[in-house]
Amino acid sequence: MTAPRIVALGGGHGLYATLSAARRLSADVTAVVTVADDGGSSGRLRAELGMIPPGDLRMALAALAGEDPRSRLWADVVQHRFGGNGALAGHSVGNLVLAGLTEVLGDPVLALDELGRVLDVAGRVLPMSPVALDIEADVSGLEEDPRVSRVIRGQVAVATTPGKVRRVRLRPADPPATESAVRAIERADLVVLGPGSWFSSVLPHVLVPDLFAALAATAARKVLVLNLGPEPGETAGFSAERHLHVLSQHAPGFRVHHVVVDSASVPPGSERDHLARAAALFGADVVYADVASDTLRTHDPAKLADVVASWTGGTPSSDRKDTSSWP
């Protein structure tokens, strides 16, 4: 039986969980990763070297790394972050390796493929765009007049704003998509979008014109995984329904088949009725399931794989304990 072709779009913690779930179902997994991070080690390397930010890409590689001892060792190495107070403090080994490979090979996709071979990655990790992007947001609540919006620029600034994010844009506008990412979406059997920081990790994918066109044209079954709850900063106070309305506003006409919601996050009652109406904007049904980790406020990869398995024709493989921490 041919392994289902799964494409997961996102960034950060959410994408790590999705990839950890997808690898239980298939060895043909492609991660399409946001490239707008401007903080920490990624932000420093982006500013100093003019490269796409490597942090979320590195984490996706770690999520798909092989299970043998050598691959797990290398996964731990690329995740290792230097301490101290010198020039290397705060940098992760994997970010520096990707920076070096990109300079030597002259192409970030070739660099990711090369490090993927070292890690025996089950699939492929691709940037959503070959150029570094900036997120720009209209934010209200920062002025005395609550009706006045201010433009905030940068992923970190948007994610941590005390105001209310109304709308986001990418800069440069209408950026190019990575061609291999477009092809992966077009040939996929299953596409998963989310969970993740809604404005800075999820929405950017539908704001890249060629990615949005591929998502609209693909014959793949499309699944949207909602967050377990609002995040401080950009989605503070958001209901599950509000997440869907915001996505619809940024991507008119976007269609998905299923919206996966943690059953404990939206208890039975009127809120589920509202959510069903919001999902209808996408032509989707709402699937409630226990997908939350028992100990952390994150999605549990094994539980998520159990839900997704019915749409791939696959059976989740034996559970793997995720040992990589999020720095």
TrEMBL record:
The keyword Disulfide bond does not apply. InterPro entries: CofD, CofD-like_dom_sf, Gluconeogen_factor. Pfam families: CofD. Its main location: cytoplasm. It is found in: Cytoplasm. The keyword Cytoplasm applies. It comes from the Bacteria. Keywords: Cytoplasm. Required for morphogenesis under gluconeogenic growth conditions. HAMAP family: Gluconeogen_factor. Belongs to the gluconeogenesis factor family. This is Putative gluconeogenesis factor. It comes from Rhodococcoides kroppenstedtii. The gene is yvcK.
